[in-house]
Amino acid sequence: MFTGIVEEIGTIRSIEQKEEAMDVSIEASVILEDVEEGDSISINGVCLTVTAFTETTASFDVMPETFRATNFKDLTEGSKVNLERALAAGGRFGGHIVSGHIDGTGKITGKTPEANAVYYEIELPADLIQYFIHKESIAVDGTSLTVFGVKGNTILVSLIPHTMEHTVLGNKEPGDEVNVECDMIGKYIAHFMKNKNSGEEVSSDFLKENGYV
């Protein structure tokens, strides 16, 4: 479990790609302070397992499902990535509940500075937009952000200077792809609000027809 509070920006030092599988080595410092093999690390919002480490790098296996579902296919040697260790019991919960299981990718379609903030417009797949409402939490490349607008298949998020400086999002531009994880609570509610037998959504009309209202 993660919180979406990025601890540091790491650098891809090596990538060995075998079709849709990858072996990735990342240079870092903070996440290596207490690292052990088998630890979970969020890399651009993707929960991966440490397979080996040195004093300056940690290595990870990327399976085909992760390759296809995330922006890892765009990574090259020298790419910067957001890094966060799994939340320790008793640790500060500064962001929101983030599982590290990416729901899909979005595309940045706009980037507009306003006062001390920068607004990003992110276009999402049609099957994901249903999970978003105003002021909801979202993890973008593993960064906990707040949704400030939803229009069509596009959401609006805002980054403060600290986030711009301390995450990879500060260097993202329109056209770039980002990993997206929807709010976990919202996904569960959407699932439970569907009738398991008929597939009908539990709407006000459904409740009236079945005598609940």
UniProtKB/TrEMBL annotation:
Catalytic activity: 2 6,7-dimethyl-8-(1-D-ribityl)lumazine + H(+) = 5-amino-6-(D-ribitylamino)uracil + riboflavin
Domain Lumazine-binding residues, every copy: 1-96, 97-193
Pfam families, alphabetized: Lum_binding (PF00677)
The protein's annotated pathway: Cofactor biosynthesis; riboflavin biosynthesis; riboflavin from 2-hydroxy-3-oxobutyl phosphate and 5-amino-6-(D-ribitylamino)uracil: step 2/2
GO terms, molecular function: riboflavin synthase activity
EC number(s) from the headed UniProt entry: 2.5.1.9
Keywords annotated in UniProt: Repeat, Riboflavin biosynthesis, Transferase
InterPro entries the UniProt entry points to: ATP_synth_asu-like_sf (IPR023366), Lumazine-bd (IPR001783), Lumazine-bd_dom (IPR026017), Riboflavin_synthase-like_b-brl (IPR017938)
Gene3D superfamilies (alphabetical): 2.40.30.20
Placement of Lumazine-binding repeats on the sequence: 1-96, 97-193
A Gene Ontology biological process term: riboflavin biosynthetic process
Subunit structure: Homotrimer.
Role: Catalyzes the dismutation of two molecules of 6,7-dimethyl-8-ribityllumazine, resulting in the formation of riboflavin and 5-amino-6-(D-ribitylamino)uracil.
Annotated protein name in UniProt: Riboflavin synthase
